[in-house]
Amino acid sequence: MEISQLWRYPVKSMVGETVDSIELDELGIVGDRTWAARDLERGGIRGAKKIGPLMQLAAHDLGDGEVEITLPDGSTVRTTDADVNERVSSAIGHPVQLERLRPADDLDHYRRGAPDSDDVVAELRGVFGREEDEPLPDFSVFPPIIAEYESPPGTYYDVFPLMIMTTAALAALARGLPDSNVDIRRFRPSFVVDTGDDGAEASTPGHPEFDWSGRRATLGTATIEFGAPCPRCVMVTREIDADIPADRAVLRHIVRDLHQDLGIYATIVTPGTVNVGDRIELR
Fold first, then answer.
1. Calpha distance 278→272 (Å, rounded)
2. Domain boundaries, the chain
3. Which CATH number fits the domain 2-33+104-282, given the four candidates 2.160.10.10, 2.40.33.20, 2.60.40.420, 3.30.450.70?
4. What distance in Å separates the CA atoms of residue 136 and residue 89, rounded to the nearest whole number?
5. For residues 93 and 40, is the Cβ–Cβ distance under 8 A?
6. What digits encode the pLDDT tens for the residues 43-70?
7. Nearest alpha carbon to residue 91 among 116, 71, 111
8. Could you tell me whether strands 216-219 and 191-194 are parallel, antiparallel, or unpaired per DSSP bridges?
9. How many Cβ atoms from other residues are within 10 Å of residue 151's Cβ?
10. CA distances (Å), 17 to each of 25, 108, 265, in order?
11. Are 144 and 106 in contact (CB under 8 A)?
12. Which of 16, 113, 156, 165 could join 263 via S-S bond, C-beta 3.0 to 4.6 A?
């Protein structure tokens, strides 16, 4: 198996960019999710679970800690521009302020904003895009800290620093959803692993990564450890552009046929460099 794609997301919930090489440190991919949007109406750092149109914007790392954002009309704005918040807010139809990642001890920065509903179950169904007859995820796979904070303090990723998908999983999705566009941008992986097969022998056919939980892998000069499969939320249904429209069928398939999961979380054991084409060796 080898790494076929590496993704970096300079702004939380915006479309990211493919790169040929990344550096992994203890927290994740260097340069990944270094900016995020603060909701100026409800408070808190927010992603596309709450502000869906964020996924219609794309972010490019300029290499100096600043980011260039492409808006849906094709125009661009930089985080250094005085009108960046106004233009991003206008593009998504919601008032936000872009904020750079802050230290982990700035706890107030990371606290969750107000919920949309006082009904906890209704709030969770909205976030995870579940219909009334569908189960909510197994929340025991999430660290308890995210009940209070939008992300683990010191980071802007949702739960864990890495999420890995396989070419087998993408092919299985395409077969299972022939009328949907299962573009990789819907699913926001950190890495895509070319498994060299269709994953037919996996315990969940087409999704060999589900069998990697608890194992470690070397890739490039880094070592990672696989955790739980990734429970999917409403974000996979969001519109990205005219070719990748809003599509509830994607999540229905994941919930019904894949035990709610797609891809697998991972954490960093040994920091290092990973390149496209590097072999990945499971232990």
1. 12
2. 2-33+104-282
3. 2.40.33.20
4. 31
5. no
6. 999 999 999 999 999 999 998 889 999 9
7. 71
8. unpaired
9. 20
10. 19, 30, 19
11. no
12. 165
